[in-house]
Amino acid sequence: MLLHLLSYYTSSLYRPTSSLSRPSHFRLISARREMSLENSHLNVQRTLAFRLCTVSSYKTELLEICSDDPKLHVLFIPGNPGIVSFYKDFLESLYEFLGGSASVTAIGHISHTKKNWEHGRLFSLQQQIDHKVDFIEQELKNTGVPIVLVGHSIGSYISIETLRKTPEKVKYCIGLYPFLMLNPLSEKQTDIKKVAESSILSALLSFSMASVGLLPRCASRIIVSNSIGKSWSATAVDAACSHLLRYHTFRNMIFMALTEFRKLSETPDWAFMRENQSKMAFLFGVGDHWGPLEMFDEVRDGYYFLAYGNCVYIHHSMSNAFSLVHFEFVYLGM
After folding, report:
1. What is the DSSP string of 40-71?
2. Which of 79, 73, 124 is nearest to 262 (CA)?
């Protein structure tokens, strides 16, 4: 019974990063490629490097690939949980499809980490937003190329708020399966909200996940693979075992979700989004209760949009000043 509850809750809260982590599900097309995808893969394929840095006194996990001659810098902001290793495969694929012309950095959320660096302290959505702004000011202030934010789920909302606070540095924002407002038709969101509002249930779920994390890695992998991670890649399962099965991480994931629900119960700032529509693009997935297609009706005015099978893609061309940043995300199906 407990595992069933854990499976339901975690699979509902955990946004569809497994679809992002598998390169075969996306085709990223550069508008100015000069070589075939196969040849470009051979020339630019690299492995992400892990780095731990301190941002405004908080230990922060990063995954990054540095281009030898970058034309832009892609800063990827994850959903909730904000564990960057969930996105390893996707980020490497992103670097390859951009032909090695962009440096790629993924920044994790505070205390969504392998080690309990913040000693059990809980962090809200707003604190995670401020953390990303501080990272740009600290780590990317001397970057001589445009910064493009790519956010997943609630990371899309964080990206928009980061663009709002750093308009002189961030030139473009892309939201993948964006979570921008509550979905009153989603029973899963309602159930998660009830759990998040209960300190007892939140603690119980977090303790239960941490208990699984105490098992030998082979055992925890079997449990994750056969419960919450049935459709996940091996990379995602490894990330869950190393990071998600920690009391401090899971507790922060639930608390962040609670603050998301509180903030996103407000009416989104559509005026700001439409004023900056030339700097934004969104990808909506069919069946995603975090970013339902009903939201598409709210944001489509002023946007050029295309439908590709199981997704709706809203697009604005980037500035002509960029040499390799006009690309498309095309979802090919689950």
Report:
1. HHHHH----EEEEEEETTEEEEEEEE--SS-S
2. 124
How far from chain centre, in Å, is Cα 271?
24
Is residue 254 within 8 Å of 206, Cβ to Cβ? yes
What CA–CA distance (Å, rounded) separates 317 from 324? 12
If we measure between CA atoms, which residue out of 288, 313, 279, 302 comes closest to residue 189? 288
Which single residue is written with the structure tokens 């308009």?
167
- Asked whether residue 3 carries a pLDDT value surpassing 80, the answer given is no
pTM, entire model: 0.83
Check if the beta carbon of residue 280 is closer than 8 Å to that of residue 299.
no
| Structure token digits, residue 290 | 């975090």
Q: Are 78 and 150 in contact (CB under 8 A)?
A: no
For residue 309, what are the contacts with CB-CB under 8 A and spacing of at least 6?
Answer: 331, 332, 333
Q: Of 274, 271, 122, nearest to 196 (Cα)? A: 122
DSSP annotation of 331 reads E
Q: Give the pLDDT confidence of 104-152 residue by residue, as tens digits.
A: 999 999 999 999 999 999 999 999 999 999 999 999 988 889 999 999 9
Q: Which helix (H) or strand (E) holds 34?
A: none
Q: What is the DSSP letter of 189?
A: H
pLDDT tens digits for 224-264? Answer: 999 988 889 999 999 999 999 999 999 999 999 999 999 99
Q: Which residue's entry shows tokens 């309990």?
A: 116
